[in-house]
Amino acid sequence: MPFSTIFSIFLIAIFIAVAFFAIKYFMNIGKCNEQGMFIDDFRGEIDDAWQSQSSSKTFKSSLSGVEYVCFANLAKEVSTTATEKEKEIYKELKKNADYTANLFFYPQKNACIKATNVEHVNMNMSNPYCFSVENDKIEIKIEKGFYDSLVKVSRG
Description:
The chain is α+β, with helices and mostly antiparallel strands. The protein has one domain. Helix content is 39%, strand content 22%. It has helices at 3-51, 84-95, and strands spanning 55-62, 68-71, 103-106, 115-116, 129-132, 137-144, 152-155. Strands 4-3-2-5 form a four-stranded antiparallel sheet, covered by helices on one side. Strands 1-6-7 form a three-stranded antiparallel sheet, covered by helices on one side.
């Protein structure tokens, strides 16, 4: 085979490899963008509920790349009321501890944004308190009573 034919095949292989890499890269950007939008939208809903006299609504969102969204206080021990899966998640979160955050994505290896802080959330619940992401969808019930100073979250 002449050198030009081998070189052409080599270039085609490189172009195909670069194309696959670029597609994968842009797909990951979409996943990261979705996680960022989830956080912004959720913070907005929490702030709206906190600023109102009372509120009760269900926050629904799309979220891919993670299996659970958890609220946790890593400075405290795991609750006795936590499920076995929540205890497993808590151990994993402790390994990559971010004590300033209260909202975590699990599994962390799949999350672009591993943890963040959401203000005005009542953390007097099971530690951690996790919401399952099923079929890339999540539902979180948001409530604030007339005399409450913080917003409560629960499974929808």
